Batch of 2 targets.
Target 1
Amino acid sequence: MYLEELSNLPGVSGDEGQVRQALLKYLQEQPGEVRVDALGNVLVRRKAPPGGKRIMLTAHMDEVGLMVTSIEKSGHLRFEAVGMLDPRVLVAKGVRVGREGIPGVIGSKAIHLQKPDERRKPYQLEQLFIDIGAKNKEEAEKLVSPGDYVSFAGTFTPLGEGYYRGKAFDDRAGCSVLLELLLEYPHLAFDAAFTVQEEVGSRGAAVAAYSLNPDKAVVLEGTSAADIPGTDPEGSATRLGEGPAITFMDQSVIADRGLVRELVRAAEGAGLPYQYRRFTGGQTDAGAVSLAREGVPCTVVSVPCRYIHSPHCLLQERDLKLTVDLIRAWLEG
Amino acid sequence: MEALIKKLVEAYGPSGDEAPVRSLIEEEIRGAVDRTWTDNLGNLVALREGPEPLLMLSAHMDEIGVVVTHIDEEGFLRLAPVGGVSPHLLVGQRLRFKEGFTGTVYHEKLKSLKELDWSKLYLDIGAVDGASAREKVGIGDAACLDQPFAVCGGRYLGKAMDDRIGCAVLVETARRLSRELPQAVAFVFSVQEEVGLRGATTAAYQLKPGYGLAVDVTRVGDTPKAPLSAVGLGRGPAVKVKDSSVITHPLVRKFMMETAEEKEIPFQLEVLERGGTDAGAIHLSREGVPTGALSIPCRYIHTPSEMVDAGDVRHAVELLTALCLKPWPRQKVLD
């Protein structure tokens, strides 16, 4: 289980270096040829299977986060979102700033100081700032520059029986599944791409799919589960504990129907639970992968995660394991 | 040609599930071309061999529709849109699945129709409970509108005129090109246009065309209090100037207009403020492809009853035939 190590590392889109280094270290232990491309994707090439059809599995290394845009006279940092973030989840969260991982907190006015109408409205991004405990601008500038990345501080914690809480499960859950497949099953014939910059528009996946030039592909994701109070069953998208979620359509891709059938047959053949992702919004690397070169049949298989794009996501270990099992069953065909 | 149009518009083919349309077209066009094949994403390519530069004609097979996202214990289905579908247009409409069975759409209790959105809409396929619904339908299954083709004055009415009428124009054009061609012509019947020009993107990569032409429907401004547009039904096919996906290459536009004038085929010029076509994807392929579009004016696009003019369709076939038979310039020099 690589989720704890991988999810605790910072890796906001465009700054995936630490995740990449961790993966590269592990990937020496498997038979595929490993390289890092110009955008920073980690590509693993294994021998093509006997039929010659190349299969590519991908997971994105990056997570949503922030970037410092300017430093106030007071030493507070102003920032912008990198990827899609709900400003309401930011207030009072611990963060790490820049290459050195300077600790900080996202600050705002305490409730005592807010005017009555301020209490009624959630904070907007431009009302928030990061406090790294610097006396003034000069002190802050010694530690931070505009353009520095900011990620949520790692929060990995086991909860209850077989649940995990942590940041960046979208998509370190997918990275963890893909790494496990590569390391534990050296006999499986597939290529892999750990991609960069998914959260800002699948930029890494587009060039990774061009390089590896697969015949078909499956994107491994951590996707939204909404099995929470106040949601009707038809609005739950995916549910924890019910196995990997197979995508038939999202905003970026209509899954290849044959490929979806193959995955369902593999799950049923191996007696593994699975679910559909019963929601058609959201974009994934499958969009970019499916349109590479002359087109690639593609879909997404996801580990259901609650509270994604926040510092505290929640998933069930069982779903992680079942996702590995499903992909393995499918590859072993 | 009416029989062909009827078959095409009544066929089932929401984006991503175009197989029935593809087999229908392949059967109709096979005798008129040198070879046909289906590519990775499901685009059908029908090729007439010839010298360079290859002319890629593209009409999309897919239509708007819905996809099932949830089946409840009472047997009602919840839906999400495939392409630009308004939930308001679906209320009371019949929808048809690939296997041929149908259902009707209605909504939960609402205070006002303004509250209507996708979460309030459901499809009733006459199932008595969830189990019997699940015997017929699975999550992820798509459905299309269910409306028969009709001839209405000198005009054609049907669902999926966008863009089966383009498909019909391509098939009919291919049949008329019996003699040797001055350049190779690829008739591409593309998939997934309605969700973002996806099929044309990969087809253009594969074919490396010298020129591209999309054949699709366009909006009109000739109905009561319509948004401003100079295009109307019955004034001939439209040569696209621009839409939000492409500005027609000046050389292509000039070539199209000159050809129409030589053959005395009526045409209009089209400036579409909103909307895109396969031309948007083709012209950005690889190193860029000079691309234009021939549009069939159409009323009530993305409704169960889209209307085109029979004369416009006939003239579109004549113009496209002339464009295939005339040698396209080897040198793509701009003025």
Target 2
Amino acid sequence: MSYVGIILTFVLVNNFVLTYFLGICPAIGASRRVESSIGLGLAASILMAVAALLTWALRTWILLPLGLLFLQTFVFVLSILALGYYLERLVETVAPALHRSVGKYLPTVSTNCVVLGIALIAARSDFGPLESLIAGVSAGGGFLLVMVIVSTIREKLETEPVPRALRGVPIAFITTGLMALALLAFDQAFLRNVVG
Amino acid sequence: MLRDLTRGLVRENAVFVTLIGLCPALAVTTHVVNALGLGTALLVVLVASNVSVSLLRTIVAPRLHYPAFLGGAALFVTVVDLAMQAYVPELSARLGIFVPLIVVNCAILARADVFARQVVPVRAMLDGLGFGVGFLLSLTLIALVREILGSGTITLFAMGDFDGVLVIPRMSEHPVQVMVLAPGALLTVGYLCALFSRSRGRTKAGASGREEGT
């Protein structure tokens, strides 16, 4: 797949939140404030990009030569957890201001399914290093996009009259569902028309 | 003790009430058989992980709890994943990355963190069993709604002459296709959540004894 194809696939066509439902918990549960969703989304994007590259390296240079591919899930989970921890430390010492807005979310995100999700998808699609990196960045971008839209809508919804049973989570689901309906316009046919 | 078992079934149902572990609830519920398969896989991993967390709670230093719990869960998931690839390869292929993703399912970590690391193994096991079964039932319910409306069929396991697919007359001719697509999942869960919270509210008020959300 071409690089443009990968970007379009992960941002729009197979958006992580709206088609794979990865990262739906933070999108539904935590996204009441736009500011914190941007922080969380950015942290996820950074971690996903680095994790995609790291897990590619682990898979190609360690797991495959040793024939330990069945331990993939185990190795990926623990390396992503460690990566989240050390990246947070790094951001904290190098850029304290960035740590307050984005970096502090890194450990939280490292146990989220978006990161392991992109690592597994990149591994299953046999992506190379650059493809993995681009897929990580784009999937993170798609996640950020949905987080920001959902939290903006929910901020507006707080002042709207909503039937009692639908208040809070149910209406958030239905809103996201309607958004996903709109995004159905970006399907495989769209992808073929754009990248051929 | 009994409360440990029933907690996850309805009162703190992972999918509809505490909203944890949603990704699989939405992604795989296009067919009933997928829901049953993934629900069972999660049930097994949750019970195993809860018990191991409870056993490890005094041995492992508190600051190493997360890596230890995740590592344990990853091992159980690997076992379940390999077993599924061997015995039900078709189902395993359909569930794809969602079986390995059970490791980071919030339900596993949440139960380990909130409950299992504070109690004896037996209680942790009952808790895992309750949440697992609650999860399995919710997943099946969502899948039933989506598959019946979306394709007019109920797909189960193939056994003998039975090919595993129940076709609902009428419904299968003009299904509401959007229900099996991604947006249908979000809409279904949204409305089921509303039903669940409505009937729970009613139970709390003591108006009627109805507890299920359907």
